[in-house]
Amino acid sequence: QITNHACTRDYNGHPDWACHKWGDPEVKVSPWEFKGGRGATIDGNKPFTFSQQFKLLDGQLQVITTMTQGAAKVVKTMGPSAQLQAMMHDGSLLRGMAFVTGYWTDPHMNWLDGDVCGGGEEHCSGAPAYISNWRITTDSPAPPAPPMPNPAPSPAGNGQYMCCWGGPEGCKGVEDWCGQASGNCQGKC
Questions:
Q1: Residue 19 — very low, low, confident or very high, per pLDDT cuts 50/70/90?
Q2: How many angstroms separate the most distant Cα atoms in the chain?
Q3: Which of 12, 128, 132, 165 keeps 20 to 30 A from 101, CA to CA?
Q4: Residue 135 above 60 pLDDT?
Q5: Which helix (H) or strand (E) holds 3?
Q6: Whole-angstrom Cα distance, residue 115 to residue 121?
Q7: 151, pLDDT greater than 60
Q8: 34, containing H or E segment
Q9: Does the reported pTM lie above 0.85?
Q10: With bands split at pLDDT 50, 70 and 90, how would you rate the model's confidence at 41?
Q11: What share of the chain is helix, strand, coil (3-state, %, to 5)?
Q12: Could you tell me the sign of the dihedral formed by the alpha carbons of 8, 13, 15, 21, in that order?
């Protein structure tokens, strides 16, 4: 399941929700697209690549999820929708995001994966899932230029710096790295 949990505090019938607990919009994969074992486009028992792109098309956010395994590929598109727009404008997408992932198991997960796993109580092996080779990248043609550093303060007196910490016995002379620039100096001088 691919979903968005925007935190806009405006969920009809749920005034206590800060974030959408069920996710909106949501896109599900079908059993012939993804499941453990043979018979699906992506075999969840074997390594596969998962990627997401956040794209603006005519000012509307779309999230494109792609799973690939060898030559096999499943692509799911979510949006545009009011909740994705809220995530972008009112939520965290324009202010920066933290990547979070989870792995959970419970015998009553049919609300999430019943389409693939079927009804009734689920039984999991409890074996670990290995998630590796994480990368966060950008589609931007070039990263923004870093801000220009503030000019260094003028040296006092003879143009040399002396850094001290913990009293006179902690002083380093001008020949030391600390003494080469005022920005290298921390502590009491």
A1: confident
A2: 81
A3: 12
A4: yes
A5: strand 2-3
A6: 13
A7: no
A8: strand 34-35
A9: no
A10: very high
A11: 15, 20, 65
A12: negative
- More confidently predicted of 173 and 22: 22
Residue with tokens 């080469």: 180
- What's the rounded Cα separation, in Å, for the pair 8 and 89? 10
Burial class of residue 23, CB neighbours in 10 A (0-12, 13-18, 19+) = middle
Grade residue 185 by pLDDT with cuts at 50, 70 and 90. Answer: low
- The kind and range of the H/E element at 68 are strand 60-69
Amino acid 71 reads A
Strands 26-27 and 34-35: what pairing? unpaired
Rounded to the nearest angstrom, the gap between the alpha carbon of residue 141 and the centroid of all alpha carbons in its chain is 20
Residue 40 and residue 67 in contact, taking contact as beta carbons nearer than 8 Å = no
Q: Which H helix or E strand runs over 85?
A: helix 82-89
**Cα(46)–Cα(66) distance, integer angstroms:** 16
Tokens standing for 64? 């494109």
Report how far residue 138's alpha carbon sits from residue 51's, in angstroms, rounded to the nearest whole number.
Answer: 12
